[in-house]
Each structure stands twice: as structure tokens, then as C-alpha cells.
Design goal:
2 domains; 1 helix
Length: 153
């Protein structure tokens, strides 16, 4: 009987570890790069009327790495979301451009348009917390200073 209990415990631990491994591999927080995209899942507290569009913005947190100061520092989504039920929607974010600054991108706002007439913005305290999306990009670009300028008649 003791052996069966121990086997059951080990089996549950193994299932738990496998489940965590699958969840972490599906997270956008694992490090995306140029050419990738990810899905933002939105759950409303109550059923929503006819949502026609969603616009969102993720902004780079902090300064860009050296050699990436002129790179893109935001990600976004725009368009019609996919409705999975009365309170659950999803929208694609990306494609992440090749000239994006590496770092953590925080969701700053979500704008939701309903029936093509009204738009509501969720930001600050109206926006549930979400872990920043980590973007990796080894590219860098250094601009040389301009040494001299002149004009001639």
C-alpha cells in the first residue's frame, strides 16, 4: 500500500512538471525576436456588446541598448479581435520588426471599439497587470558623427 501511494505521488509530481514546462514554452515572456508575433488574450468581467476593433500598445521599458537608440520602441495590435465567447477575445500582436530595440515591453493601453461608434480606453488602474513581453534582438547600428559641413556658391 505504501508503494502505491509513493508511485501516485511521483506520478502527480511528473504531471505537474510537464504541465509547467508546457505553460512556460507558450508564454510570450520567454523572449521573442524579429519576425515573431504573439497573441494577447483579453477577458472582460461581463459580456461585451459587438466589439469591432482592438488597438493596443506595448512600450519599451527603460533605455534602448547601445546601438539601438534609433530602433523601434513599441509593439502594437490593431484590428478585429477573435471572439471565443461572450467575455473572451484574442488579438494578434506583431509581427515584431527587425529594427526593434531589445528589452522588456509593457502593455500601456488597450482601446476597444464597439459597434463602430464608441471607443473605450483601458490604461493605468483600468488595465490588469501583465508581465512585460521580452524581446531579444542582437542587431545594433552605430551612426558616425558628422565631421564637417560646408556650402559653396
Amino acid at each position: 500500500m505504501k508503494c502505491k501511494g509513493l508511485l501516485l505521488f511521483l506520478a502527480l509530481c511528473l504531471v505537474s512538471l510537464c504541465s509547467r514546462a508546457q505553460q512556460s514554452s507558450m508564454s510570450a515572456n520567454a523572449g521573442l525576436g524579429p519576425g515573431n508575433s504573439f497573441t494577447l488574450f483579453i477577458t472582460f468581467q461581463d459580456p461585451m456588446p459587438n466589439i469591432q476593433g482592438v488597438v493596443c500598445s506595448f512600450q519599451l521599458q527603460g533605455e534602448a541598448k547601445p546601438g539601438q537608440a534609433e530602433f523601434v520602441k513599441q509593439l502594437g495590435c490593431a484590428g478585429a479581435p477573435v471572439k471565443t465567447d461572450a467575455t473572451h477575445y484574442q488579438v494578434k500582436v506583431g509581427e515584431i520588426p527587425g529594427d526593434i530595440a531589445e528589452g522588456a515591453y509593457k502593455l500601456m493601453y488597450i482601446n476597444v471599439s464597439v459597434d463602430g461608434e464608441a471607443v473605450h480606453s483601458y490604461s493605468g488602474a483600468n488595465l490588469p497587470s501583465l508581465e512585460p513581453v521580452v524581446v531579444k534582438n542582437p542587431k545594433h547600428l552605430e551612426f558616425s558623427p558628422i565631421k564637417k559641413l560646408e556650402t559653396k556658391p
